Amino acid sequence: MRIESTLLIFSSLLFCIGLALLLNRKNLVHLLIGIELMLNSANVNLVYFSKIHGEDGVLLVVFLLLIAVCEAAVGLAIFLRAYRFFQSSSATMMKNIRES
Amino acid sequence: MKLITFIPSVFLLVPIFSFLAKRYIPVLAAVTFAASFILSVVCWMRIDQNPETISFTWFRTSDTNFYISFTADSSSLPTVSFVTFIGFLVASYSVSYFKNSIQKTGLFTTLALFMASMTGLILSSNLLFSFVCWELVGFCSYLLIGFYRDEEKAGKAATKALLINKVGDIGFLIALLGVWASQGSFDLTELAQSSLPNEGTFQYLIGFGLMTAIFAKSAQFPFHTWLPDAMAGPTPVSALIHSATMVASGIWLLSRVHFLMPVEVMWFAGFCGMITAVLGAWNALFQNKIKYLLAWSTVSQLGLMMMAAGWASTDSAVMHLITHGFFKAGLFLAAGYLLLQLIDNPEDELTSIGSIQQGDRLVAVALVIFTFSLAGLPLTAAFLSKEAIAAELSGLERISFFLISGLTIFYSVRLIWKIRPFLLGSRATIVNQFTWPILTLALACGWWIWSLDPIGYTRYFANGAQEVHLNLIIVASLFTLSVAYISYLGFKYNWITFLGKKEWIVNIDPLLHLAIVAPMVKCSIITGKIDRLIVDRLLHGLAYGKVALAHVLATFDRYVVDGLAELMATTFGWLGQLIRKATSGTIQSYLWWSLIALLILVIWQ
């Protein structure tokens, strides 16, 4: 098996795990972790495809990781406010926001 | 000639003004009666040779107009003058007769309506309008006969008169339908000139229908039984019913519609008239109550008129109707006046009247004139009208006519004989409100109402030619005078003793009961049984079937129709649930949906 297909299968697995986390878990922190996993699988793909096309994508990936950290910080801050407000970190509690 | 429309309508002033105080109503009634009489005489004076007709549209259906039409000719106007004249005299007599009655407003308004419908009937030249007037005449007579409404006898008599007249009305209706079906018109002048052939069936339908109506109204055998019972009404009302209005309407209608009658029906009418005349005269022989005697004599005289109409001509019948009206109204008014002087209600009224002391001389003379007129002695008007009838009859018919006239003379002489002490012993000469109508009527009983010649007559009053039948007059004078003299001798020497016995009265009521009422009751019982046993069961079966069908339908409805509806409701409810779930508000469900959408897009690409 070549290393390229192994990388693609890895990134796909990573994406699917992230998606499964995102879709099935109740806790907001788990959801955030799922999102991070999916982002990272995209990063793996980005590195791989840049290598194939002969261009340098690694720096962009480092930059993206940095952005991901910021995003995680903002998300965690929002989750903390939400937890304070709803007394729960469950994603279903968020439906009380809707107009009714 | 528009004036003639006011002859019937002027009477309607009385009901319109019936809100007035009670004591003004009788006077108002008498004034309107007089006004109507004067109007008719004025119209009569202005009449031309040609009959005139005035029509008003009564109502219209989709393609036909129905008219109220009045005709003025040399026959209707004299008759209407005669009717209103009698009506006026009776009304002014009634003003004093009913002075103390508490129901006089009702009486006089009914009398006015009675006269209005009668004059309307006489003047009408449209069969439909005639029918309406005819019904009104019958209904008013019902009200008037039942005037003493707290007496059982009066109520029964009124109901009997109404019911028997209803039988006749059905005949009239049948005839109306027949006329409409065969000729398509109700106008009498059109019908008289109509060239459409009358088919046989219709002809006899019309003939017998009209004949039934006329028989019921004019009290012909076998419908005559209501007339003597109608004596339960007040005497002035009897005077009106027996002379000018109720019974006259039948003969008058016959004279109007005789051209619609087949010859055989007319002959049959004459034959029934003969039976009626014999029966009436026979029963009049045995009456001791003066009103009942007069009632039976009316039946007899109506029979004579029907004989004349059927066998001779309707003109002579109308002639006799008029002379009969004058003397019969006078007899009734005089009888009412004399009965007021009796204290109690005796069984043998004639003897009691005979024993009135110091009677009224003028009334006695009038009574003799009336009775002679009833007998048809020479120099009276009735002699001339009977002569007019006899001149047109021949053979056996003329002989039977003479014999019935002989019977009439016989009971007239008996009447005079029974009350002779009163006639001979009367001394007082009083003219009061009761006597002047009687005396006026006595004046109208002479020969001069037909012509100035005591042995000739002009048939159409002023317009006809003078007719004299010299041989007949000599025979008739000898016959009447000799019969009168023989019966006078018979009473004087007491040859005749059986008269006055009730057992000899021919009463056909039980016969009618046996022949008509009892079979009808039987029939109704049988039809009732058929109804209960067959028709009711059929209906029940039908009803049960319907209920069963309804149950089946209800089940179908519940399970099939309702099921379909519920299925649709459930489906859409489920769909709704599904769609509602999609928009539940949880983030993850939106993520699911967007994932599915993304996958679909990717696959389709």
Task: Summarize the topology.
The complex is a heterodimer of chains A (100) and B (605).
Chain A: H1 3-24, H2 28-52, H3 58-86
Helix pairs in contact in A: 1-2, 2-3
Chain B: H1 6-9, H2 13-16, H3 25-45, E1 52-60, E2 65-72, H4 76-97, H5 104-123, H6 127-145, H7 152-183, H8 188-193, H9 200-217, H10 226-229, H11 235-243, H12 246-257, H13 263-284, H14 290-311, H15 314-341, H16 349-354, H17 361-375, H18 381-392, H19 395-418, H20 420-425, H21 435-443, E3 457-458, E4 466-467, H22 470-492, H23 509-582, H24 587-604
Antiparallel strand pairs in B: 1-2, 3-4
Helix pairs in contact in B: 3-4, 3-5, 4-5, 4-11, 4-15, 4-21, 5-6, 6-7, 7-9, 9-12, 11-15, 12-14, 12-15, 13-14, 13-19, 14-15, 14-19, 15-17, 15-18, 15-21, 17-19, 17-21, 19-22
Structure description:
The complex is a heterodimer of chains A (100) and B (605). Chain A contains three helices and no strands. Chain A has 100 residues and is mostly helical. In chain A, helix 2 packs antiparallel against helix 3 (58-86). The mean pLDDT of chain A is 85. Chain B is mainly α. Chain B has a domain at 514-604. In chain B, the strands form two sheets. In chain B, strands 1-2 form a two-stranded antiparallel sheet. A two-stranded antiparallel sheet of chain B has the order 3-4. In chain B, strand 3 (457-458) and strand 4 form a beta hairpin. The radius of gyration of chain B is 35 Å and the shape is elongated. Classes of the chains: A mainly alpha (100), B mainly alpha (605).
Low-confidence stretches of chain B: none
Largest sheet of chain A: none
Treating each run of at least 4 consecutive H or I residues as one helix, how many helices of chain B? 24
The 3D shape of chain A can be described as: elongated
Q: Which percent range fits the helix content of chain A?
A: over 70%
Q: Gap between N and C termini of chain B, in Å?
A: 107 Å
Mean pLDDT of chain A: 85
Helical run tally of chain A:
3
Determine the oligomeric state from the structure.
Answer: heterodimer
Main sheet: strand order of chain B:
1-2
Strand content of chain A: under 5%
- Which chains share the greatest interface? A-B, 11 and 8 residues
